[in-house]
Amino acid sequence: MAHPGPTDETTLAPAGDAETRLSSGTGSGTPVAAKTGISSGAPPSSSHSGWLSTSQTDAGRFASGTILADRYRIIGLAGKGGMGEVYRADDLRLGQPVALKFLPESVSKDPTRLAQFHNEVRTARQISHRNVCRVYDIGEADDRIFLTMEYVDGEDLSTLLRRVGRFPSDRAIEISRQICAGLAAAHEFNVLHRDLKPANIMLDGDGRVRITDFGLAGLAGEIKDIRAGTPAYMAPEQLAGREVSIRSDLFSLGLVLYEIFTGKRAFDAKNVAELLRMHDAGLALTPTAAVRDMDPAVERVILRCLDRDPQRRPVSALSVAAALPGGDPLAAALAAGETPSPEMVANAGNRDAIHPALGLTAVACVLVLVAIAVVMVDWALLFHRVPFDKPPEVLLDRAQTLEQSLGYPATPFDSASGFDVYGDYVNYVRKSAHGASRWQELSSGRDPLTIFWYRTSPRTMVREDVRRRVDISTPARSVPGMTTLVLDPKGRLTAFEAYPIQTEGQANAPPPNWDLLFEAAQVPKARFTPATSEWMPIAFADTRVAWTGTLPEYGDKVPIRLEAASYHGRITSFHIIYPWSEPRRGGTPSRSWTEVITGSMFYIIEFALIAVSVVIARHNLRAGRSNQTGALRVAVFAFIVESIGYLIDANHVPFLEGETRQWFAVGAFALWDAAMMWVFYVALEPAVRRFWPDGLISWNRLLAGRWRDPLVGWHLLCGVGWGVALMLTLRGGFFLKDYLEDGAVVPYLNPLFLGANARLYVGYLFQWLFDAVNISLLIVLLYAVARGSRAAAGRNLFALVIMGVLLIGLLAREFLTGNNLPFELSFCVLIVVVIAIAMLRFGLWAMMVMFFVNSVMNSAPFTLNPGDWFAPTSFAIGALVVGLAVAGFVISRGGEPLLGRVLAEEN
After folding, report:
1. Which end of the chain is more exposed for a tag (fewer CB within 10 A), N or C?
2. Could you tell me the pTM of the whole model?
3. What average pLDDT score do residues 109-114 get?
């Protein structure tokens, strides 16, 4: 609807609430219903509809003592306005004072006005807030309709401003916050007030603000008469008839705040044309020009509300309240649609010490969870089902002795050793046996699963890939003179391979003593008969032999094959071949479609995330939103941790060239990881600050060096607890899956080599630190991308679903085998739920701790038997986890007495 032309003849009626029509002096303007409020003199008088005051002395239509509708007794006239009369009355039924608002007789029969009256009741009844005048119901008396509403014994803001001029700063801020709270309550129900002005704001006897008069209110998006209201307090777009929205109410709010803090009107115009010119020109007198000692924060929020462009105004009344001095700047920035700075995020939230009862309860929960984990692992651990009494030092000495007896050097140039697990037996049992007895071979005394390997080389063994540690298969056994010897946990020989030197030995050398192999393997030769060799040795052999038979530990039902070979009279190969043994040098095993799909999903999602991260990071850098200081610190941390972990884990060589190559290889890989971490951080951190700043509070404090902050300690403690809980969820899920599929739990194939070598374990600790940071940032990136997507559109639950689907795609490679797809999918969903709860409740820092503790706990060969040789490792890991929890509790106390002041004073 077009507004009247901005001519000098366009005038507005004198101050007051009598309903008028805006039109040009010639009558050519378009009629628009409006409550007048612009005048050349003082603000509107106190006589208006929608507010109540005991200052009125007019008798009105109804005399004091009149009983209406057999329920309400009139006390007196409280006010008059364009929408009728308001009486103070007593509700005889409920015994409380109320206000009765009557339509004027001239309009009580007007369907349009009646509809407006009903709309006020319908709209106002939705809003229940201490800063909004409550509307109760509609009644009728003497053929006149009235509404009952809360009686407010006080004074309207317009009258009060006329008396006091302006409020002191503290009182002005308090009143402003209450106005914002009441207006926000209306906006929460999508209700636009459309006539917010000092005359429609009451202060009761206790000084509490009440917003009144919802006669022109309506639902956003359903309003037709856009320019209905008081022109002096209309937003430019509303006055022009273009639109009315929440931000139009915020423009009116800005005008009210201007008067509260300055005692003057922002636009003191005599007519609409002058008002439109003032809107175009902007404020002639800024708030600080009117009041020189005004807080700049107050001026900023007023000027933002009065911005001519609605899109540049605050997004909500709560954001206005938060931006006022003493408010929450983080909430203000979020509500205003801005991205808070890292410093603002770090300074937000609670800074008080955690209550000792809460902290001690959390520590107790961690202790209980760790105890459950230890018992569960001890019950299911593979090493408690097989004879495993020989520590790695004894097995190493045994391997060296056997090699020497077979004619190989006792002191090789380079060597390495460790534990490993063959999965052949697990696959065999799963395919051929079911029930609780299917793992009976494990208790037979000859372990078919666990091995101790020992490798030697005439050269330094250096891996060419990023994992520097030498294992049983890498580097490749291709150098002449290399040997590999494998023992079971009892120290019995199960395999031996040697790569012979070309010029070694004599062509006519006597055959080797094969009995040495039977003795080393503790295999009764009488139970075996010669057979044709079927398994090729790793290198050329001029003699190959084989035997078939059975072992007393497995009985006659398990056929065993022994394969051996020699070159120039020296044994070069020996293997015990079980029914479950699979060739190690065959072609690439076939992969199921499930493995192909899940593996492809992992890399597709990973590469897509990298590509998305690069694009988002570039955009953030250009927009100046990135936290480059934090990103650099995270990247440096990643580089240092990766480098230390790999270098500790490496097989160091005694010459500079080889060691330098390792340093460069490790550095290059660590630099790549650090660069990816930097990209991830630059990409996701601004989005997280925008959508989920609470999740970064403790992390940003830690990143700023405030590691003694109570919240940092509390989230450390909570992260430890969730880490143990995640480990229990994973282990319990795997155990339950095994039981549902086969009726028995697969022995816990824990990497025992970590318990056998302290140096390797420390190296893995650094690697787990990096992995924890990396996976946490990755998950938060998924969440931030989901929250920022148009599909989510700010809906947190939908964003979590998107994140969960993507995360399940990453988990699929490890958890989805296709054997029991419904359970596996449910298991993945459960893992995602546990991660999501920890993330949303405690944030990024707690997530990192959670993943680190989960890795530490999952690698621990826990035992309840202190006599086990790996018990020290078990106890050390448990002490590490509990120690982290205790450290979190101590830090969470923020320097306060650990058990509270009361106990400290008693002592």
Report:
1. C
2. 0.66
3. 73
